[in-house]
Amino acid sequence: MNYDYIIVGSGIAGLYTALLAEKQGSVLIITKGSIEDCNTRHAQGGIAAAISKNDSADLHFKDTIAAGGGLCDEEAVRILVTEAPDRIADLVNLGVPFDTLDGEIALTMEAAHSIPRILHAGGDATGEHIEVTLSNRVRSSKIQVLEDCLATEIVVEKGEAKGVKALDCRTGSTMEFECRFVILATGGAGQLYKFNTNSDIATGDGIALAYKAGAEIIDMEFFQFHPTALRLPGVTPFLISEAVRGEGGILRNVEGYRFMPDYTPDGDLAPRDIVARSTLYEMKKTGSDRVFIDVTHLSPRTVTTRFPHIYRFCLDHGLDVTRGLVPVAPAAHYMMGGIKTDSWGETNIAGLFACGETACTGVHGANRLASNSMLEVIVFSKRAMEKSKRGVKTKAAAAAKGTEVRHSLSQRQAPKAVPAPSLSGVQQLHWDKVGIIRDKESLTGAADTLAAWQGALPPPTDRPSYELNNLVFTGRLVTEAALLREESRGAHFRSDFPQGSSRWQRHIIFTSR
Ligand code: SIN
Questions:
Q1: Where are the beta strands (DSSP E) in 274-393?
Q2: Which domain holds residue 446?
Q3: Whose CA is nearest to atom 2 of ligand 1?
Q4: In the chain, how many domains are there?
Q5: Tens-place pLDDT, residues 10-65
Q6: How many angstroms is it from 241 CA to the middle of ligand 1?
């Protein structure tokens, strides 16, 4: 079968890109689950955009750059903040029901923004509303969707992407599709970690596919940990949105003490990496595996109308957040690095684009500003489709000299005894050794184990075995990049190199070529 566009993944990046691509040609979406099964659905907070009269693209630019720890691509950030209002208008036109106040789109505050600029829908169900709006549009369009179908290889000939090989997860049969353009929109890799806020689909599939096809993978050491995921025994971590602190929620330790002002003058609304690390220190200090968010001083009506989803989820687990403290702890949340693209979503392989969390456009740098990710999707997916409209297969230009260092995965010393690779083993290893605070010893042990696992894994045959392969491979990139970066910057904190270094004012790229 031959298509103009093959899109791999069906979160907001895949669906939005497909709706744009449909205007330009035939489109096939390949998705390993159902089109409702994606990370976007879990996004509570919202989308940042400078749309209020007190705000400006310049201020949004300044906040994004400040959060990014010196590694944002300024041109990409400028595009992000400038094109934001038009892309929000596109979402409104598609039918996304953003919450309003007095007839205007309502805006809330999140950490490290200088002004309330976060749009939300259904209170704290922004991702779900966007996803439902887009998937309904896709279901009633001519776009073809193959569910339960896992992409296993990008076909590249003479440096050009030509198609995709895939596995039908229900029957085990293999398929091959040809196309003019391949767009990877597979989401992140939060399943690397024992505690994460992501859906089960986030297994680094796009990273593994792209690397094996010869694409460049950049900034993998920067994995963002959200400071506040619900921590209840036997309950999968559930995001307690940063907007809860934006609306006045307070972090307290197990003794009820408000600790954030001890760590930073920005207190509860400090950048995410600082709150996550401070929370970890506080948990250690008090010998507890959790801290608490307190919203009991807010009016119950504010809590239940602004955060209906969180309120309901906690209540279903026996916790009335309007009366009691909410137990939380940090959890892996967002992969800042990914498949390197230019400001048109193009990779270094002609005809291969990447969008969303699996891509790295350079807007997040070393630490993503809250609620910039869904904005990045809509801005850069649009640009990718503009570029492909021209019909010519081009590729991203090389970056300026001196801003990047290039590596291949290293040969590693096999540890004496390694357990057999498994999903729980991968998750425990990353949580223990490649987590919020790392050092040379922990990273070296993890890198050796991951290399041994990669060597030991049999060829994949079904969805779980492909996902495990992809996680081990993506984990190697995260771990080896973290080992190389001998400094602390943004979300990457090395206890053996706790300061930033001007020597590392550059990016780490992995490539198989
Ligand atoms: C949140 O609601 O705290 C998550 C928003 C984001 O990660 O941008």
A1: 291-294, 326-335, 338-340, 352-354, 359-360
A2: 405-510
A3: 45
A4: 2
A5: 999 999 999 999 999 999 999 999 887 766 666 677 999 999 999 999 999 999 99
A6: 6
